[in-house]
Write a structure and sequence with these properties.
240 residues; alpha/beta; 2 domains
C-alpha cells in the first residue's frame, strides 16, 4: 500500500528526516512511534502529499506522492484537528464531504452515519468553537472517515483526550482494519504500539527499527522503549 524509499526532508539547515525507508502493508495498523519532534508528522505529510521529499520517493498504491489520484482514497486526521470553528460540526462534515465529491442524499447519509459513529449526533448543530478537545478529535475522525477511504493517516489522534475516549478510538481503528482499511497512526505513547500490527521507531529524523510488536520487544530486550536509548544501539537490519 505505502512504500517510503530513502526519503529525506530538511527545513532550512535542519534535516528532519534522513534516509527513511519503510513498507506499510495493506490492511494493517502501522504505528509510527517517537518523541515529539522526531519527524513523524513530516513523514505523514510526505505520504499524504502535503509536502514533497527533498530526496527519495513515496509511493501510495503504486502512485508517486503527491498525486491527486490517491487523495480521494485517503483519509487524513491531522494533529491540530484542521476544523472550521465558526461553523457547526455538521457543516464541517458537509464541507469536507463536498471536497470528496459527496452530494445530496449520499452526503447526508454519510454525515449522519459518521456523526453516530463518533457519538456527536446530538452536538451536530453546535459551533465547533464550543466543542471540547475530545469532541474536536471525534469530529476530525468523522471527517477522515466520511468518504470511507481505504487508507487512513492519523497524526497523534489520541493526544489530549481522556483514557475512555482513547480506548473507544482504538476500538474504531480496529474495526476499520477488520474492514480492510490500512491505518498509519503516529504516537509518542508507548503502550499504544501494542494495538498496532507493526511499527517503526523514529528519533531525530532517523529510523531506529521496524517490525512487529513482538520483534521490537525482543530487540529491546523486553521493552520497546529501550530502543530509544544509546545503550541499545540498533545494529540489526531494519525489516521492510
Amino acid at each position: 500500500m505505502i512504500e517510503v524509499d530513502a526519503v529525506s526532508k530538511s527545513y532550512g539547515q535542519q534535516k528532519v528526516l534522513d534516509q527513511i525507508s519503510l513498507t506499510m502493508p495493506q490492511g494493517e495498523i502501522f504505528g509510527l512511534l517517537g518523541p515529539s519532534g522526531a519527524g513523524k508528522t513530516t513523514l505523514i505529510r510526505l505520504i499524504t502529499g502535503a509536502e514533497a521529499c527533498d530526496e527519495g520517493a513515496v509511493l501510495v498504491a503504486g502512485e508517486r506522492s503527491p498525486s491527486f489520484k490517491t487523495l480521494r482514497h485517503l483519509g487524513y486526521m491531522p494533529q491540530n484537528d484542521g476544523l472550521y470553528t465558526d461553523i457547526s460540526g455538521a457543516d464541517n462534515l458537509a464541507f469536507f464531504g463536498g471536497l470528496f465529491g459527496l452530494r445530496g442524499a449520499a452526503l447526508r447519509q454519510a454525515i449522519a452515519a459518521k456523526l453516530d459513529l463518533v457519538g456527536l449526533t446530538a452536538d451536530a448543530g453546535k459551533l465547533v468553537h464550543n466543542y471540547s478537545g475530545g469532541m474536536k478529535k471525534r469530529l476530525s475522525l468523522a471527517a477522515a472517515l466520511l468518504h470511507d477511504p481505504p487508507l487512513l493517516m492519523l497524526d497523534e489522534p489520541t493526544v489530549g483526550i481522556d483514557p475512555l475516549l482513547r480506548r473507544k478510538l482504538w476500538a474504531e481503528f480496529a474495526r476499520q482494519r477488520a474492514a480492510g482499511v490500512t491505518l498509519v497512526v503516529t504516537t509518542h505513547v508507548m503502550d499504544e504500539i501494542a494495538n498496532c500490527d507493526r511499527a517503526a521507531l523514529i528519533n531525530n529524523g532517523r529510523l531506529l527499527a521496524c517490525g512487529s510488536v513482538e520483534e521490537l520487544t525482543a530487540l529491546g530486550r523486553g521493552n520497546i522503549e529501550n530502543l530509544f536509548f544509546e545503550e541499545f544501539p540498533i545494529t540489526t537490519e531494519v525489516r521492510p
